[in-house]
Amino acid sequence: MLFSSIPFLYYFLPCVLILYFIAPRCLKNSVLLLASLFFYAWGEPKYVVLMAISIVLGYVFGLLIEAWRGTKLSKFFLILSLVTSLGMLGYFKYADFFISNFNAVTGLSVPLLKIALPIGISFYTFQILSYTVDVYRGEVKAQRNFISLATYVALFPQLIAGPIVRYSDVAVQLESRTHSISNLALGMRRFIFGLGKKILIANALGELCDIFKESGDKSVLFFWLYAIAFTLHIYFDFSGYSDMAIGLGKMFGFDFLENFDYPYISGSITEFWRRWHMSLGSWFRDYVYIPLGGNRVSKARWFLNIFIVWLLTGFWHGSAWNFIVWGLFFAVLLVIEKLWLLKLLKKSKVWSHIYVLFFVVISFVIFNAADMKEAFQYIGGMFGAGGIPFISDEWSYYLRSYAVVLIVAIIGATPLLKKLVLSIKKKPAGEKVMNVLEPVVMVVLLLMMTAFLVDGSFNPFLYFRF
């Protein structure tokens, strides 16, 4: 089920909210768990069993790890937890990738398994892993209430595409959380804001990207228009989902951490990855990079650690070589920055921003390519390879057609609007005006987006496939 759909907005969510708030405190997690299982089964009924098995294993391993803490058995159960969780993820997400590459290397024809990728498996697997690892480290206590742990893993606001919520961040809230009209209102506002980013901006930019791919009149400027449009598209699509997830969490009393912080204003790639998909970056930092030794090792080992983390980050996104290259592309840039470039970037804010945007745009062309052959074709097209024309009629037509959306997206990817609202609120009558204006804007936005959904087509989130 999609957040950006009529069934979710006008049937599922209102019913869940009503049931949740009339339920006694002791049953609220049960209501959320049942709702989350229904939400997941709507699109993936057969894979609810797989998620249930993952939850049961995480629950059992958590108890065993804590029961034998300080002994070798505790480490054994942790390893068993890692092997089973990563094994299931590897089988469903990467089996065909390894088989196809094995066939390519050996010349054999081992048949592909052709397994459908369970939606959200990358996200809920990482949440279970963070739970068992934190129990092993003694940072959290093992959860003895199965319903509470299952609610944490299956919670529908962040189940499908994150943000990756760590158990340690919501452990207290699973047992006792605050509900209020103000939190409900804040959650609704954040949800509608994220829904607007998805429907009004991301979907329109996605249409432009699809038009480019189907076009037979490509030019250098059209390649660049596509690359910029996709770079904005993926930001508004994914950050819009994160906003909706955070807003939904707030409605039910949960405080999820932020996942994006205006990454396109960064002055370095290092800063970019502190602002982009922050829950994933912090997960790899705390559960892979630091255990490998982080930067407290020799310089050669430090750089190796960076490459390992970014190899895994790319591979996490998908079972294809373009994702691996995408991850290693950032590893190279990060190593170069740490060697000498960071000092140079600090001398000029303008050139540092241009540098970041240039390489981020290139990276997302690689990211969105069907394979590396297409990635090279597109990047080559951006620089005139193959003798393609510099300009085309289609480029100028679609630039004019999507100019408003592109301008809104560029401004919306910066904190300018946020700063404007805050400056208005600081004025004597500003806060009163905003308190009246804001609900009106939210209602108008919701009505507009409802009209788009009624008249629109299927609009899945990009990160559903990861």
Largest sheet: none
Our measurement of the CA-to-CA distance between the termini, rounded to an integer number of angstroms, reads: 16 Å
Helix content: over 70%
Low-confidence stretches: none
Structural class: mainly alpha
Radius of gyration: 23 Å
Could you explain the architecture of this structure?
It is a single chain. The protein has helices at residues 6-22, 28-43, 48-67, 72-106, 121-137, 146-154, 156-159, 167-175, 181-214, 220-251, 269-275, 278-289, 299-317, 321-345, 349-368, 372-382, 393-401, 403-412, 416-426, 430-455. It is mainly alpha-helical and 466 residues long. It has 2 domains: 6-177, no CATH class; 183-465, no CATH class. Helix 1 (6-22) packs antiparallel against helix 2 (28-43). The radius of gyration is 23 Å and the shape is globular.
Give the secondary structure arrangement, pairings included.
Layout: H1 6-22, H2 28-43, H3 48-67, H4 72-106, H5 121-137, H6 146-154, H7 156-159, H8 167-175, H9 181-214, H10 220-251, H11 269-275, H12 278-289, H13 299-317, H14 321-345, H15 349-368, H16 372-382, H17 393-401, H18 403-412, H19 416-426, H20 430-455
Helix pairs in contact: 1-2, 2-6, 3-4, 3-5, 3-6, 4-5, 6-8, 9-10, 9-18, 9-20, 10-15, 10-16, 12-13, 13-14, 14-15, 15-16, 19-20
Summarize the structure.
With 466 residues, this protein is mainly alpha-helical.
Question: Main traits of this protein?
Answer:
mainly alpha; 74% helix; 466 residues; 20 helices
